[in-house]
Amino acid sequence: MKLLLVEDNEELANNITTYLTGEGNICEYASTHFEAIDKIVAFEYDLVILDIMLPDGNGLDVLKEMRQHQSETGVLIISAKNALDDKIKGLDLGADDYLTKPFHLSELNARLKAIYRRKNFSSNYEIEFNEIHVNTQSIDVLVNEQNVVLTQKEYELLIYFLSNTNRMVTKQSIAEHLWGDQADLFDSFDFVYQHIKNLRKKLLQAGANDYINTIYGLGYKFNSNKK
Amino acid sequence: MKLLFKVTIFYLLITLLVFGAGGIITYNIFKQEIQLETDRFLDEKFQQIEIRLEEGEEIDSFRDNKIIFVKINSIPQTNLRRNISFSDTTVYHPQLKRMEVNRKLTSYLISHNENYRVEIHDVIVETDDIFQSVYESQTRLFIILGIVFVISGFLISTWLFRPFEDTLININNFNIKNLSPFTFKKTSTKEFKILNDFISRMIEKISKDYKNLKEFTENASHELQTPLAIAKGKLELLLQHENLDEKQVELIKSAYESISHMSQLNHSLTLLAKIENKEFSDTQQVNLSYEIEQLLSDLSELSGLMNISVEKDIKKDITIENDKTLIKILLNNLFQNAIRHNYEGGKIKIKLDQYSLIIENTGNEPAIPPDQLFQRFKKGNMNSKSSGLGLSLVRKICDISNYSINYTFQEGWHKLILEF
Predict the structure, then answer these.
(1) What residues in A contact B257, CB-CB < 8 Å?
(2) What is the chain B residue with the closest CA to A8?
(3) Nearest by Cα to B401 from B296, B313, B317, B329
(4) How wide is the angle at C-alpha A81 spanned by C-alphas A75 and A83, nearest 5°?
(5) Interface ipTM > 0.85
């Protein structure tokens, strides 16, 4: 994927580019409205991550401008302003998703990949991972060509892992991914553990390798190196 | 009670006292004057008799029903001037056919070597007649004065207090969100000028402060969220490193959790400030029944995971007028609390009708008194992960929406009653 990150905060941009670079991704960075327009006019991107508050303008203006040049590009808006207004305005202007700061980098990654899959639905709605095969359109999960029946949450969890393979994902980010704002309710992350346990069991029963590593009570890693 | 009405009543009361005192004084002066005049008249009559006796008239020519001559042996010596004394007496009045109060002069004289005691009396104005007339005149005066007071007071103050009334109306209509500075009518009264000037300056200041506060709230939210996002991201990146040992991960974990907590606190505080600023004022008809059902289905997985059974009695299509976002925040906090402060296998009861929403849930007794639960950062369970702001958000929303909320804990049940 070729990505453009429009974000005025250098440190935050640094975090995002560091996380997203690799896996064959190229991540470019623009810190101002001017710079962003400049890049959008000159190059083509698969995905643009757009901050709304920019030092020299509004990110929504960048979005408007961009829609005139690159209609196929996926856009994810990130902003601290979790005002419903901005969200609706952004989505009206053709943004594909909206993420409120602060967010988990793994969540950002998963969202970007979801947009990418939707945008390129002709070829990319399938996720292949060794013996695991997921069709995100029909919501089917196959292990060694055999259908595995997962619950909604287990499916979401699997997609989340597959979007962040070989990366450590925290229990908190999983909880927020699965339950959104309601994730605050957990005094412990036992429920996350329950779902992970069930998912792991179903995958193992279907003959897949045990890819899910537990990391010191903090999170999990979907480890592709494990045989 | 209107100021003018109060002032008039006070004035009338004071006037009543003054008129009462005035009546007593008038009455006494009248009485004295009348007595004095009667005495002088009797005295003159007596002098006439003396003069005419000296001129040689006979005593019998003076005798009538008001003058009595009594022969006595000797004239008693008194230290009175000219040996004259006055006294009150009652005498039968032949026309009125009753006893009447009279004034009597008693003195002594000598005629043809005979000693006489002379008693001259005459009718005097009765005290209750004086009282009656004083009372009547004072009452009439008081009534006239009262009417004049009320009418003139009303007319004058309407004219005089017009600028003040305008100022009051202006203040009453003042809305901090409507930031146009309001203008006062010109007035020539110094005090009102000072008042209006002061209010103008105050409002200017309030508007400025309000704007600053709003800006601060927005900025604080934005400015704090970014560094939090950065710190969180850095920790996440740090976690991606291979070869971290358990101790290192433990350190990262606790930093990570603290940052998450801070971020949540920041979010709640911002929300609280926004509600206080009345930034949620998009009032509309909100279908409470629908919102509750929706929320319950959103929360059903969580309550299911904790084996909490939900018993509901929700009347259909109960609507209330309020901002939808506010209602959602309110309901979300209440229901989350009902789950959070519950235990594995507990129960929740929800009852909604057109007057109230009652949420009951099983749970442990809160560690602090119920009336403190609604205060900021007061937590029933100090170890819980909650921010301690949930119920103060609820209270704030209830306050600005004029809902009443009551919490009780009885026999293992938390009960929240929300009346709207």
Answers:
(1) 172
(2) B226
(3) B329
(4) 95
(5) no
